[in-house]
């Protein structure tokens, strides 16, 4: 039943006639536990304006996380974000070349089999058009399907919404909604596929509205007994 649902969702998400033109996001992320409280992470993304065609954007970033307890964590990270003009695969010239530094707080809730993640992030962005600050808030809900906890072999669904605000008029910059289905394959590997709907007030360094997203997360040396809520860094 779960496999059939995954197949139907896959067909719906990749069918361009269902939503109009659909771009793609490919995401690979990894986390390595250094101690019960400290971990480091990295992530890379490729994005296209058509379904795995016309790639125009890539990013890579990494940082460190301090786990206060299972419900709270803080992180510091930095990354490079590069956008090219539309019409080809990384077609010159660049539209935007950005270095970003960010700090965040994550609050996690465990309600029966529902996992809720609240993420608060402050970003400092050095872009091709100057410096700006951005404030982001994301809430993400994850529900395991065939078990009560997220563990190897468990399928899950997740939905989230994130609001992007900036320190310049008109202050509202972006809203991003995500819907995904995935599986924690092993203790170290989680894979997922999903749909991203993104609305920008003014599109100056991103193109497209609807995206098919596929990704894998690797989690090495996670402390025993700590449940990992699937969550990408961007």
What can you see in these coordinates?
There is one protein chain. The chain is mainly beta. The chain has one domain: monomeric porin ompg (Porin, Beta Barrel), CATH 2.40.160.40. The protein contains 2 helices and 11 strands; from the N terminus they run ααβββββββββββ. It has an 11-stranded mixed beta barrel. A hairpin with a 4-residue loop joins strand 1 (23-33) and strand 2. It is globular.
CATH architecture: Beta Barrel
What top-tier CATH class fits best?
A: Mainly Beta
Major beta sheet, strand line-up: 1-2-3-4-5-6-7-8-9-10-11
CATH H level, superfamily name: monomeric porin ompg
Q: How much strand? A: over 45%
| Low-pLDDT regions | none
Number of helices: 2
Structural class call reads: mainly beta
Total number of β-strand segments?
Answer: 11
> What does the radius of gyration come to?
18 Å
Describe, in short, the structure shown:
By secondary structure, the protein is mostly beta strands.
């Amino acid at each position: 039943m779960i496999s059939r649902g995954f197949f139907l969702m896959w067909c719906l998400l990749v069918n361009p006639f269902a939503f109009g033109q659909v771009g793609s996001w490919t995401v690979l992320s990894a986390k390595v536990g250094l101690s019960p409280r400290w971990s480091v992470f990295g992530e890379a993304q490729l994005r296209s304006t058509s379904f795995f065609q016309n790639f125009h954007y890539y990013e890579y970033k990494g940082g460190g996380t301090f786990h206060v307890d299972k419900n709270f964590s803080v992180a510091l990270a930095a990354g490079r974000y590069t956008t090219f003009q539309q019409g080809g695969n990384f077609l010159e010239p660049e539209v935007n070349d950005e270095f970003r530094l960010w700090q965040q707080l994550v609050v996690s809730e465990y309600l029966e089999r529902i996992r809720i993640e609240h993420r608060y992030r402050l970003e400092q962005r050095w872009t091709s058009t100057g410096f700006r600050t951005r404030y982001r808030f994301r809430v993400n809900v994850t529900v395991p399907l065939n078990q009560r906890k997220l563990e190897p072999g468990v399928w899950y669904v997740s939905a989230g919404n994130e609001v992007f605000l900036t320190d310049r008029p008109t202050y509202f910059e972006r809203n991003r909604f995500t819907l995904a289905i995935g599986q924690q394959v092993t203790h170290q590997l989680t894979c997922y596929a999903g749909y991203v709907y993104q609305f920008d007030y003014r599109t100056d360094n991103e193109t497209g509205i609807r995206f098919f997203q596929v990704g894998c997360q690797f989690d090495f040396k996670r402390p025993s007994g700590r449940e990992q809520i699937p969550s990408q860094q961007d």
